[in-house]
Design a protein that fits this description.
By secondary structure, the chain is α/β, with parallel strands linked by helices. The chain contains 10 helices and 7 strands. A 7-stranded mixed sheet has the order 3-2-1-4-6-5-7, sandwiched between helices. The radius of gyration is 25 Å and the shape is elongated. It binds uridine-5'-diphosphate (UDP) and magnesium ion.
Length: 310
């Protein structure tokens, strides 16, 4: 039997887009001729989005409504959680992604990938949006080694089983490929259409840059050290300890030979500061190792994913 499809759409104040969006998605999916479901997650819109969603609900459509606005990542996670399809397609509700690209994504997916990421090569946003995004994509691609040009494009096709096993939080919807890559390396990209926003406005402003930076650091750390925290914190502790020891030796030398007051102060402060930093880093490493041990012992965490067992 051919793989079934779940389409997941996060919705926040998109009243003027939903009707056309639903028509387009439904038509495309009916033409594909597989079993499908469309899941809209209303992130507690303050406009008429929910009323409109209720009116367009049909047998293939599920609507999840949040009690308050939790953000795009939470909306996508809720849609993923209630999905059942073998393949999950995510896309934005604002018609900037084109549902007509879905068959292409599925065709590519079925060549043997677990994730096909949309690449908005001709992106239709202004330069204030696209320039920071270019830098972010470059950094994300380098630090997380996915090699994708456009990790922030919502339009993607995923292996449902793998995606449902991942927990998203913060603004991690922009980093799903980097997180996904920790579970499967069958990842590729495909050029997709991108349209200017016709109705409603973008929910983000330039300040998202700061969130992207801290999320990126956290994900780069997590990707490398989640199963070996001491290789980060322990090495950091050793490096700090080394600096503390060097400061100590310099302090002694200065006390015995050069006798410069200012240098005494500098070396003393540096010795104390780095010794404390070393202890703190070591303690943090130990805490993370303990958490990891407990999780592993309780079988809550595994660092591998199984494709098949024969
Ligand atoms: N969205 C959401 N909750 C939010 C903000 C956005 O569900 O708090 C949805 C929004 O309705 C859209 C998608 O996330 O479907 C992407 O948002 P937007 O188009 O504003 O982002 P941009 O394309 O400007 O990056
Ligand atoms: Mg948009």
């Amino acid at each position: 039997m051919s793989a079934s499809i779940s389409v997941v759409v996060p919705v926040y104040n998109e009243e003027d887009n939903l009707k056309l969006l639903h028509e387009k998605i439904s038509e495309v999916l009916k033409n594909i001729g597989r079993e499908f479901e469309i899941i809209y997650v209303d992130d507690s819109s303050t406009d008429n989005s929910f009323e409109i969603l209720k009116n367009l609900k049909d047998d293939n459509t599920k609507i999840v409504k949040f009690r308050r606005n939790f953000g795009q990542t939470a909306a996508m996670q809720a849609g993923i959680d209630s999905s059942q399809g073998d393949i999950i397609i995510t896309l934005d509700a604002d018609l900037q992604n084109d549902p007509a690209d879905i068959p292409k994504l599925i065709e590519k997916y079925e060549q043997g990938y677990d994730l096909v990421s949309g690449w908005r090569k001709k992106r239709q946003d202004n330069v204030i949006r696209t320039f920071p995004s270019k830098i972010a994509n470059f950094l994300i691609s380098k630090t997380t080694a996915t090699g994708l040009h456009d990790t922030g494009c919502t339009l993607k096709a995923y292996n449902g089983e793998v995606l449902r096993s991942i927990n998203l939080f913060a603004d991690h919807h922009r980093f799903i490929p980097a997180i996904f890559a920790q579970y499967s390396n069958k990842i590729t990209e495909l050029e997709v259409e991108h349209h200017p926003r016709m109705y409603g406005k973008s929910k983000y402003n330039i300040f998202r840059v700061f969130r992207v930076i801290v999320d990126l650091l956290a994900i780069a750390y997590w990707r490398k050290y989640k199963s070996k925290p001491m290789y980060f914190w322990g090495f950091l502790a050793l490096a700090f300890l080394l600096i503390a020891l060097v400061s100590f030796v310099l302090l002694i030398l200065n006390l015995l030979i050069f006798k410069l007051l200012l240098l005494n102060i500098v070396y003393s402060v540096s010795f104390v500061l780095f010794l404390l930093s070393s202890l703190v880093s070591f303690a943090v490493g130990l805490i993370f190792e303990s958490i990891l041990k407990v999780n592993l012992a309780q079988n809550k965490t595994r660092y591998y994913t199984i494709e098949t067992v024969l």
